[in-house]
Q: What sequence folds into this?
């Protein structure tokens, strides 16, 4: 116990020391993780005030600022105007040229089993320092810290997460580093690529502005984004030197409608043939050379609008694991809807979402399941996982999750969130495949969170209770989590 206490105290003291001697972040994009920012953005989109994309993160600040500058707020309720003001202030402050830094601390007695868009810590404790520069051409961040998954019994892991270097060249932003991605419309889950796992080292590019194309033929696509990156699954893996590629295109051809398609792939690595260009373009449906690559394809659709003057949104996502979409796809599904319930000052956002990774053999063949299939592969034994966590859905394969979430911002900028989850994790038909639990389990969990801004600091508090635990543990469990972000 003394060792554990001294370890915690040392990490906390170090972070607070740097925080005390050292303003908001300076970066070219809005990154996954800010639930209040996303709620404001989606409210404005559903209200018809802005037309930017909301299903592919990071999201360029440049696009949001341009959209907000041209937004027509005349006749809009106070809640919509307040969301626009918050979002514009955050976008302008975060994208302003200059230098910034932050210290971040997160501690909990039990990390959350369900990890959503605004998930907090991935371990029992983490501390990190970040130094950023944002310029017209070059932007970058150096971020360094440590994470532990079990105080006193496992070694801390060095965390460069969030570190990047970016070059703005014409309408493209080139980058290299460790960036989180969230590809999909889900609030609680992104099937293919989310921030559940720590970010891998990567190099890539994306459009610096999601504005519609000026080309007459392509202009009908509306706002659009394309991103491609190459990563390396380093760290403790069964098979070393496995590479990862990810490509996604999102378009908005009609107001309120977003359509995304994406392809991700594991290739090369120890014991595998390595001809990435040949296999990439010959495996569009993953059927020609299944032993050479491990691929996933996804499509998602989201529609937002006002219904009887109430902003609403509905969305779906389908992911196919390997092989042809027609003959043997291994399909997983996500569906959800949100409504912004009018209140005195700010609306209450209610979201109902369902996720199912019990794969069906072909799309919509719901009576023909393949167990132990999603995120797994017979040739790439680690599957679509990185450092022990799934790249997509936090509950991994053969799992279902039904979630009801409510969130609300008050006039002082405080953000409140309450979530209730009903989860089945793993299946008795493939009990040893799921990385979250060693045996199938059904659990219910409730979580309450609040984000409190104070001067330049932000304090996040969360409390969770669940009626069972991933195996080998059993029984009711409760958790508290505290996170502090201190800009300097």
A:
């Amino acid at each position: 116990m003394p060792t554990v206490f001294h370890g915690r105290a040392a990490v906390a003291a170090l972070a607070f020391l740097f925080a005390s001697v050292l303003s908001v972040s300076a970066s070219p994009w809005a990154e996954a993780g800010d639930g209040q920012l996303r709620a404001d953005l989606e409210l404005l989109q559903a209200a018809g005030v802005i037309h930017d994309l909301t299903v592919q993160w990071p999201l360029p600040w440049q696009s949001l600022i341009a959209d907000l500058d041209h937004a027509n707020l005349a006749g809009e309720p106070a809640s919509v105007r307040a969301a626009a003001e918050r979002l514009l202030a955050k976008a302008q402050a975060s994208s302003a040229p200059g230098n910034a830094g932050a210290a971040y601390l997160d501690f909990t007695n039990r990390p959350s089993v369900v990890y959503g868009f605004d998930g907090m810590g991935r371990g029992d404790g983490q501390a990190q320092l970040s130094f950023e520069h944002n310029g017209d051409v070059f932007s970058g961040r150096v971020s360094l810290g440590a994470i532990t998954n079990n105080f006193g019994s496992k070694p801390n892991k060095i965390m460069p997460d969030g570190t990047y270097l970016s070059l703005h060249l014409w309408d493209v932003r080139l980058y290299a580093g460790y960036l989180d991605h969230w590809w999909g419309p889900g609030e609680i889950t992104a099937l293919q690529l989310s921030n559940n796992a720590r970010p891998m080292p990567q190099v890539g590019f994306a459009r610096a502005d999601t504005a519609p194309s000026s080309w007459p033929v392509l202009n009908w696509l509306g706002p659009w984004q394309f991103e491609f990156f190459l990563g390396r699954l380093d760290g403790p893996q069964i098979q070393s030197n496995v590479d990862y590629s990810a490509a996604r295109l999102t378009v908005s051809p009609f107001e309120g409608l977003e359509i995304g398609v994406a392809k991700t792939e594991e290739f090369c690595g120890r014991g595998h043939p390595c001809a990435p260009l040949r296999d990439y373009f010959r495996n569009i449906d993953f059927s020609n050379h299944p032993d050479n690559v491990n691929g996933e394809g996804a499509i998602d659709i989201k529609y937002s609008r006002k219904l009887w003057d109430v902003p609403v949104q509905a969305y779906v996502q389908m992911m196919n694991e390997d092989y042809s979409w027609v003959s043997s796809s291994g399909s997983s599904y996500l569906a959800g809807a949100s409504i912004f319930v009018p209140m005195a000052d700010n609306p209450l956002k209610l979201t109902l979402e369902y996720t199912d990774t019990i794969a069906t053999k072909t799309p919509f063949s719901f009576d023909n399941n393949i167990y132990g299939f999603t995120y797994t592969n017979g040739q790439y034994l680690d599957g679509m996982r990185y450092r022990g966590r799934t790249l997509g859905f936090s509950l991994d394969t053969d799992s279902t999750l039904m979630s009801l979430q409510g969130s609300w911002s008050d006039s002082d900028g405080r953000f409140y969130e309450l979530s209730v989850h009903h989860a089945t994790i793993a299946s008795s038909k493939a009990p040893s495949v799921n990385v979250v639990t060693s045996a199938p389990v059904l659990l219910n969990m409730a979580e309450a969170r609040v984000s409190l801004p104070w001067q330049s600091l932000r304090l996040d508090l969360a409390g969770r209770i669940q009626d069972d635990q991933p195996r080998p543990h059993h029984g009711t469990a409760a958790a508290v989590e505290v996170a502090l972000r201190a800009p300097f």
